[in-house]
Design goal:
This protein has 258 residues and is an alpha/beta fold. The chain has helices at 19-25, 64-77, 95-104, 117-124, 168-177, 211-214, 238-241; strands at 3-8, 30-33, 49-52, 80-85, 109-112, 138-142, 158-162, 185-190, 198-203, 219-224. A hairpin with a 7-residue loop joins β8 (185-190) and β9. It has two domains: 3-115, Cobalt-precorrin-4 Transmethylase, domain 1; 118-227, Methyltransferase, Cobalt-precorrin-4 Transmethylase, Domain 2 (2-Layer Sandwich). It starts with a strand and ends in a 17-residue tail after the last helix. The structure holds S-adenosyl-L-homocysteine.
Length: 258
């Protein structure tokens, strides 16, 4: 009987995986991987048998019991089975079902966290998800219910929606109905971490226009405080920024606003 390590691969770029994740991947006998993980990760485990268990979108959710069974079977036959998931394994990754399947067969497991798409999108667009004073809370949401209906609300200063890419017009209406102001900022980032990554800016009431840019691409939709660009201070040369602010009688010094 072997053990299973769930590893978060991060979104897109293979080098977003953690050092711990990469080390364990290099020892794997079998790797069960998802559709949204970078094929370049194979180079970290050329010795392993790579099994594609990818499924995209809720249409294929029936495949989950088959994945659970496959995981158990491989763990019974190999010393180290890696379950490689896009982003973080514990964020919209059906991790609970797989943990339950392993527990039912008394198979030991471990979880190595990964960079979730919301965090990678915030980094790629240089938009901190929290903002001092007005961005004090962040929520991660799936736009889709288990039944495939679109649901959205307002639960934090910054709400990030996963799996909403196909229905941005409906998302816009649901956000307005939930009380988001029409002019609240929205940032949509698709295929973050990949060479064709794309980020666009919108308002809640005009989010439908984002659909043409992101059609058919995995996207995260960030709404509220964390979606707005950081106002950049008027370009202050670095050496000036270190000097004290203007002194009376000493002209020529730039004043730096806080
Ligand atoms: N466990 C993953 C999420 C899996 S659910 C994580 O932590 O990121 C799949 C959803 O994640 C997609 O519908 C999309 O909303 C988001 N996603 C995954 N990869 C992405 C990427 N490269 N760029 C933007 N969104 C992504």
């Amino acid at each position: 009987m072997g053990r299973v390590v769930f590893i978060g691969a991060g979104p897109g770029a293979a080098d977003l995986i953690t050092v711990r994740g990469a080390r364990l991947l290099a020892q794997a006998d079998v790797v069960l991987f998802d559709a949204l993980t970078d094929p370049a990760l194979r180079e970290l485990a050329p010795q392993a048998l790579w099994v594609d268990v990818g499924k995209r979108g809720f249409r294929h959710s029936a495949a989950q019991p088959a994945i659970d069974a496959l995981l158990v079977r491989h763990a019974q036959q190999h010393a180290l089975v890696v379950r490689l998931k896009g982003g973080d394994p514990g964020v919209f990754g059906r991790l609970e079902e797989e943990l339950q399947a392993l527990a039912a067969h008394a198979i030991a497991c471990e979880i190595v966290p990964g960079v979730t798409a919301a965090i990678a999108a915030a980094a790629a667009t240089q938009r901190p998800l929290t903002r001092r004073g007005h961005g004090r809370s962040v929520s991660l949401n799936t736009a889709m219910t288990a039944q495939g209906r679109l649901q959205a609300g307002r639960s934090a200063d910054t709400d990030v929606y996963y799996m909403a890419g196909r229905q941005l017009a409906v998302l816009s209406r649901r956000l307005l109905a939930a009380g988001w102001p029409g002019d609240a900022p929205v940032c949509v980032v698709s295929r973050v971490g990949w060479p064709d990554q794309l980020a666009t800016d919108h308002r809640v009431d005009s989010l439908a226009a984002a659909a043409i840019f992101h059609a058919g691409r995995p996207a995260v939709v960030t709404v509220g405080a964390g979606a707005s660009p950081v106002p950049m201070a008027a370009s202050v040369p670095a050496e000036d920024a270190l000097k004290p602010t203007a002194q009376p009688g000493k002209p020529g010094r730039r004043k730096i606003s806080a």
